[in-house]
Amino acid sequence: MIYWRPGCRYCRRLRFRPGRDARRGHWADIRRGPAAAAVRAVADGNGTVPTVVLPDGEAYVDPDPEWVRERL
Fold first, then answer.
1. 62 — alpha (psi -120 to 50), left (phi > 0) or beta?
2. Ordered DSSP codes for 17-37
C-alpha cells in the first residue's frame, strides 16, 4: 500500500520515477476514506506522505523511488 496526497511533490516523484512499475502498487489518497487513519497508525500519528506499507506490515516514510520499484 502506498499512501499519498494530491499536491505532494514527494508523492509525485515516487509515482513517476519508477515508471510503469508504479502502476503495480495500490495507491491510497489520505484525503479519502480510512486511508488517513491508516497512515497515521504507521507514521507515529502523523499524516506524512508518501508512506509505503509492505505486505509484512513494515512501513517506510518517504522511501527512495528505486527502493519502491524493486519491491513492486
1. left
2. TTGGGGGGS-EEETTSTTHHH
The span from the CA of 60 to the CA of 63, in Å, is: 6
Show me where the domains of the chain are located: 2-71
DSSP assignment, residue 50?
S
* pLDDT, tens only, 6-59: 999 999 998 888 777 778 888 989 888 787 777 888 777 778 899 998 888 888
Choose among 27, 24, 28: nearest CA to 69: 24
* Contact criterion met (CB below 8 Å) for 60 and 25: no
Q: What angle do CA 10, 16, 20 make, to 5 degrees?
A: 145
C-alpha cell at 58: 513494515
